[in-house]
Design goal:
single chain; alpha+beta; two-stranded parallel ribbon; globular
């Protein structure tokens, strides 16, 4: 009950990058989305990013929803592969 009473829902519009802004990204990019996300359309997001950034690594997690947890085993190798 306390969470429901005191939780502040996001009220502002989620910012979207324009296609030309995304196309300018030259660094390695990885996208993780949940196939069962009921808040955002993951398939459309993945398709859009993939068409704009062919070098992006896209991971659609079939059993995941909006909240993605326990991805360290997938994120760490991506980060380690980059010369940061």
């Amino acid at each position: 009950m306390l969470i429901g009473k005191n939780f502040n829902y996001r009220r502002e519009q989620i910012p979207l990058f324009a296609d030309d802004e995304l196309k300018r990204l030259t660094m390695s990019v990885v996208l993780f989305v949940g196939a069962k996300d009921i808040m955002l359309h993951s398939a459309k997001t993945a398709k859009r990013l993939g068409s704009l950034l062919p070098h992006a690594r896209i991971q659609i997690l079939p059993d995941a929803g909006h909240v993605l947890t326990h991805l360290a085993a997938q994120i760490i190798p991506f980060l380690e592969s980059e010369k940061l």
